[in-house]
Q: What sequence folds into this?
């Protein structure tokens, strides 16, 4: 199932099963059945239909949403080899840790928001009728070292846009990993019909502004004194790029 695919269920119980699995990421089938108080035979039938229609996958007694598989990309720089792939539920704690470490630099407020949301929901990929998100991670020796996060609004008037955040642990900067992450996020957005991406950072985050501008992003607006950081008011810079796919 594509993250941009419209959800369409012809039975309320199937919608409830999908919603429960989607909200939990990876969950035991018997837990879903008990939580929804469904008859075992009816539950098995509904899960079979959901699997047939490409909404869920079953691995033993566990269910998860059947998101379309994304290619794993291998990269080799002069002194580091890394992969970029779609984030998986098992990456949750490592991903949150990386985002929080980057956010602790104090100049990436959107990253703090992403980390808080992931920590609260305990689910990485989402696709429901309100909001969806896609996350790719950069890994060195299978350890998460960076991410690119795409927040995908379901509102029709905003469905052509997405909010992108990207970050990388300081140790791994200047190896081309950040550029590869940004490129992966932009390509995914292009492949799925998005037309414009946004990213907002405090004006004090000069490295992020320079990085995005070097990749063709432009400042669309400045909100004066939008942040209060370390006792000082700081402007917010809203950057964007139109996708030429």
A:
């Amino acid at each position: 199932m594509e993250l941009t695919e419209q959800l369409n269920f012809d039975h309320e119980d199937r919608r409830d099963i999908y919603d429960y699995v989607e909200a939990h990421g990876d969950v035991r089938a018997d837990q879903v059945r008990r939580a929804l108080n469904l008859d075992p035979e009816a539950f098995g039938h509904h899960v079979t239909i959901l699997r047939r229609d490409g909404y869920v996958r079953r691995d033993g007694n566990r269910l998860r949403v059947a998101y379309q598989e994304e290619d794993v990309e291998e990269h080799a720089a002069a002194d580091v080899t890394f992969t970029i792939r779609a984030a998986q539920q098992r990456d949750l704690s490592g991903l949150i840790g990386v985002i929080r470490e980057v956010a602790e630099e104090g100049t990436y407020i959107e990253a703090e928001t992403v980390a808080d949301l992931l920590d609260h929901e305990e689910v990485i990929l989402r696709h429901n009728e309100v909001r969806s998100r896609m996350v790719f991670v950069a890994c060195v020796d299978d350890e998460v070292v960076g991410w690119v996060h795409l927040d995908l609004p379901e509102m029709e008037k905003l469905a052509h846009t997405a909010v992108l955040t990207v970050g990388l642990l300081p140790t791994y900067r200047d190896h081309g990993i950040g550029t590869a992450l940004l490129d992966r996020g932009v390509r995914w957005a292009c492949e799925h019909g998005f037309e414009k991406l946004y990213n907002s950072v405090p004006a004090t985050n000069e490295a992020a502004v320079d990085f995005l501008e070097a990749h063709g992003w432009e400042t669309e607006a400045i909100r004066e004194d939008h942040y209060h950081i370390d006792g000082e008011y700081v402007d917010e810079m809203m950057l964007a790029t139109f996708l030429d796919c």
